[in-house]
Every structure is written in C-alpha cells, then in structure tokens.
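Subject: Protein entry, chain in single-letter code together with its fold tokens

Area: Proteins and the way their chains fold up in space.

Attached in line: The record itself begins immediately under this heading.
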Amino acid sequence: MKLSNETVSVLKNFATINQNLVIKSGNSISTISAQKNIVAHATVKETFPQDFAIYDLNEFLAALSLFGKPDLDFRDDFVVITENGSASKSLKYWYSDPSVVTTVTKEITMPECEVNFSLENDMLSNVQKAAAVIGVPDMVLEGMDSGVALLKVTDKKNATANDYAVKVNVNNENGKNLSYKFWFKVENLKLLSGTYDVSISSKNISHFVNANVDIKYWIALEPESKYDA
C-alpha cells in the first residue's frame, strides 16, 4: 500500500494532537488529545487491511521519510516499509500494544448549536499568527450585532493584554441579537490548513468541518464561555 500525500498530511496533523494513534481497518482515522479536549476524524483514500497501533506517530512518519516512494506491507505484528515495493531496502516497524495507546472510544454527538460561521483559511492563519506575535493564549468569539461577531486573540487573565480582532459574519439562533463569548485555547486549534464551517454550542463544544478535505474536529470550549439566550 502507498499512502497519498493527503493522508500523510492528515497523519502529520494528527501527530500534533496526540503522538499515539490507533488505526482501524477501513478508510477512517480518528485521534483524541491526551486531555480529551480535541477529537479529530478523517476519511482517507486508502483502505487499511487491519487494526494496528502506533505509539510514536512522529517516529513512524520519520521512518516513512527514509523512502522516496514508501510502500507498506502490513503484517500481523509489524509493517514492512520498502522503496516502491522493492526488497533492495526495507524497514520493519513494530506495532504498539493498543492498551498503552490513547484512542477514541465512542463517537461524539454534537448538541444543538447556537452559532455557525465560515472560518476562511486566511483568517485562521492570520489569527494564529497574531496570537504567536503578541504572545497571547486565548481566542474568543464575541457576539456584536445580530449576524456579526468579533473573533479576537488575547489573554483573558490580563485586562491590559494586547489583542488582535477581526469581524466575522455569523448565523445565530433565529437571527436574534444575543450576547455570547465563546472562549478557546489557541493551542487547541490544531487544524489542517483550509476553510472551515464552524458550529458552536453553548454546551461548550465546537465542531470544525473542513470545506475541501474530509476531516473534522470537535474542540472543547473553555469554562468561562457564556451564552445568554
């Protein structure tokens, strides 16, 4: 089996969420952060023939990078990586014991969402870059007028913290002019680049769905989040 560039990109992204990964037979891959506040799910082009666990996903990706055109042959206890199927050079990579690997155990059912908006790739990139430049850890979506919100990065524990903000168009419950502040940790926005359809629930959970790649994330909000219905 050869892995597409898109699938390798997904695996690299998942490695930022958790170094552990369990891949089930089929074409779906899911991961969950150690703190259980980020869950990601992707559907990929390849169909994996069996279940297997990887303890250090970055190490596995580094092993793949040793080959120009890696070909994977999955065995019962390990995978053999060769150069385009040739036996001239190979690497045997042993699976991990699944009991020591963090994995998604159940599907997430999103509750009713009060706010929805489109997060363009450029906006996401600019917000993340701004947070790094001014050294702030938090992002908030704050309701303004009906249909408009402010997406801002700041430090919620510092009243005089620098902040960077952009206006976004939102769809909120029945178009009402409601007050809300949905707080995120910037470090939890471990998203594959792209444009996202974002849904946020007052139950302190959000759903990010990539508009171009079959990948989606569920990210927990911070407890300070407020929604005034």
Remarks:
- The longest strand covers residues 38-48.
- The CA atoms of residues 65 and 134 lie 34 Å apart.
- The chain has a mean pLDDT of 94.
- Helices lie at 5-17, 57-64, 121-134.
